[in-house]
Amino acid sequence: MNTPARISIAEAARHAGRSVEIRGWLYNLRRSGKIAFPIVRDGTGLMQCVAVKSALPEEAFEAIRNLTQESSVIVTGRIRAEERAVGGYEMEVEGLEVVQRIPESQPYPITPKEHGVEFLMDHRHLWLRSQRQHAIMRVRHEVIRAVRDYFDSHGFTLIDTPIFTPAACEGTTTLFEVDYFEDEKAYLTQSGQLYNEATAMAFGKVYCFGPTFRAEKSKTRRHLTEFWMVEPEMAYADLEEVKRVAEEMIVYVVGRVLENRRPELQKLERDISKLECVRAPFPRMSYDEAVKILQEAGSEIQWGGDFGGGDETVLSQRFESPLMVDRYPAAVKAFYMQPDPGRPEVALGVDVLAPEGYGEIIGGGQRVHDLDLLLDRIREHNLPPEAFDWYIDLRRYGTVPHGGFGMGIERCVAWICGLEHVRETIAFPRMLYRLRP
Ligand code: 4AD
Ligand code: MG
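^ thats the input. predicted complex w/ 4AD below
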């Protein structure tokens, strides 16, 4: 007899009728005296196995009967179609090797019963084995692939920007200081944007995609201290072009998840019809209009203030597609934002608010390109000009209007998956009160 082919559970359909080998872990076990139904997972899916006492050597059947949750096993057997089994196939067990049996004295900590979130977060290294976490991580993977495919196929060059930086990008209050470089303080980057502005002048259209860091002390369902951000930047682009690209990218990403990750969304009990409603053109409004709507809805907000999470929810819940709010007061935005030439008290910036109360997923806009104006802004924000010398240079040598945006991957995934909190959208979240595991 040939040795059975080693397959992953995801490819079981192609091997129906043949004997194969699956390497995985015990997910669940039902048994009676003469028959046992171990369900094995291998990271690609679940396989219901059927072990019949009379068809197996006695020891093999006993080993199966005594398996414990998450014990590692290699099973061989014949695949056959079975409508009632998870995935539509099951395996008639012909042999089993126990790689490690977890003893009853030290059982796998996560059982099918309900556990509190803090317990699960403390066991994140194991929790990632659960079906729900699989679904989320696979949607995340698809979002990241779609984002890359979008930019790669629209003329953007990927440029990786540094993590250690000598200066703040998004404001000094949320910087992580690193003590290493002689004579100079360094910080973990909040955004690759400033470097992207340099590379956009070199390549025209670029994007960076990497981890970014924020030291804010906020403990909300939308904040991580370490998160992944994709940031396109375009030379000769104005605010309208930035909005157009952001809209097109979001529509593409949502479409790809709907195309390739429907079972995962179903597993998460996501209301898929909400995602199917996402289409261009997105609703657009100015900050002024948004403030008026909020005041009419009873919010305390005054012109000049930044929106709170509650305000964003009120605004975005009125629409099925993400909402684009532009022209915020310059005073609440970063130093690099280009003022509106007709109305310098507002900046040519845009935030994209996801529907269903998921809040801001994108921030971006047009950058200051004039040398003197940039110098003024750096001074007004009390930033050290020497840390920005190279950035200022960009306004000396062939400066042009330009812009871009940043999208936080975790917030985007939380919205698409319909999750209450961003902590489940990344394998090992870093938050104000969480550094482990
Ligand atoms: O609005 P932000 O701060 O904008 C920037 O960093 C710009 N430099 C981007 C650019 O124009 N190139 O952040 C952009 C996005 C937010 O809309 C949000 O999705 C995400 O990054 N984000 C966070 N996600 C999780 N936790 C945090 N603490 C986040 N802070 C921002
Ligand atoms: Mg923002």
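The longest strand covers residues 19-31.
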